[in-house]
């Protein structure tokens, strides 16, 4: 049991490094992971020894190592999340008549890992393997809204982090915080024409046993998000809750 806190801190550091576009200095890791400097330094040295982290001495920065890549590759090979999600997403499409997809956070983007198309509907931009800016997508907003504020701040340190597609969506951290606050209050995320003009999406986060968001479930359709779409919203949230139970092994998530 004495090793559990150290394991939790180690995973927190790895998760933070995985969200960064480039290697980062020690101070960024200390602030983002809320660790004492000495603890962060000790953990990083251990992870360097095991190949999970590399140190760039000339730049005084730390990044992910080859061992972390091997773990990620193993996940890609096994596709446990995608396997768990395919049937629930297919059933979501059957119940709503709209296309549905599952996305995971990849840096400041979301990466789409499962897409279920509705019969007779045109293909969407959210095909498997596509990456889109997380702050513009419903899936990304659902995930970001469930992250600690410090991690969101680390992902979006300045205005240059906010990619624009169609002139819509948040362009600053304060604007994004407003969007995420509304998302938490509603219990689901929305986007209206920010990814594809004329199309709307609603999404909900899938959580692990610690309440950490591991993915977002979304449905995309033409029209506006309002009272007429309450049934769609309910179905999306029910699917996300179903996947949360599967991912967390049936454990009850305490928020």
UniProtKB/TrEMBL annotation:
<dbReference type="Pfam" id="PF01614">
    <property type="entry name" value="IclR_C"/>
</dbReference>
<protein>
    <submittedName>
        <fullName>IclR family transcriptional regulator</fullName>
    </submittedName>
</protein>
<feature type="domain" description="IclR-ED">
    <location>
        <begin position="67"/>
        <end position="255"/>
    </location>
</feature>
<keyword id="KW-0238">DNA-binding</keyword>
<dbReference type="InterPro" id="IPR036388">
    <property type="entry name" value="WH-like_DNA-bd_sf"/>
</dbReference>
<dbReference type="Pfam" id="PF09339">
    <property type="entry name" value="HTH_IclR"/>
</dbReference>
<feature type="domain" description="HTH iclR-type">
    <location>
        <begin position="4"/>
        <end position="66"/>
    </location>
</feature>
<keyword id="KW-0804">Transcription</keyword>
<dbReference type="InterPro" id="IPR014757">
    <property type="entry name" value="Tscrpt_reg_IclR_C"/>
</dbReference>
<dbReference type="InterPro" id="IPR029016">
    <property type="entry name" value="GAF-like_dom_sf"/>
</dbReference>
<dbReference type="InterPro" id="IPR036390">
    <property type="entry name" value="WH_DNA-bd_sf"/>
</dbReference>
<dbReference type="InterPro" id="IPR005471">
    <property type="entry name" value="Tscrpt_reg_IclR_N"/>
</dbReference>
<keyword id="KW-0805">Transcription regulation</keyword>
<dbReference type="InterPro" id="IPR050707">
    <property type="entry name" value="HTH_MetabolicPath_Reg"/>
</dbReference>
